[in-house]
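Lab notebook, bench 4. Still working through the backlog of constructs that have no structural model yet. Next entry is a single chain of 111 residues. Request: give me the structure tokens for it.
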Amino acid sequence: MIALVAGLFSGWTPTQKILWGTYTASWLVDFGQTRYIAEHPDTYREDTSSWIIGEHPSVGKVNNYFLGQYVLNYLISDRLDKSRGWYVGLLTAIHTEAAIGNVGIGIKIDL
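Model written out:
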């Protein structure tokens, strides 16, 4: 398993791997908060990705959306070479901004 994971990031610089780790952390927080939104439809609604998963998505729909997004972003990132760091940095900023906004309105994390 470790060899498989290590192989996924072959050709990535140490900085790019660290950036992917920060992206993963921000993605997990956003994912957990969106699951919380799904579990509390009477209190919260999804704004950012509502055009894809709806304002009141099921937990299953949230899981599928976020896991698909994670895999797709890895595949895109892996194909980028010189701009990989910029792309992953942008992804991190997007999820961090969403998480900060969610915390501001009282949304918790549910993983």
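Notes after review: Residues 14-104 form one domain. The chain has one domain: 14-104. Flag for follow-up if needed.
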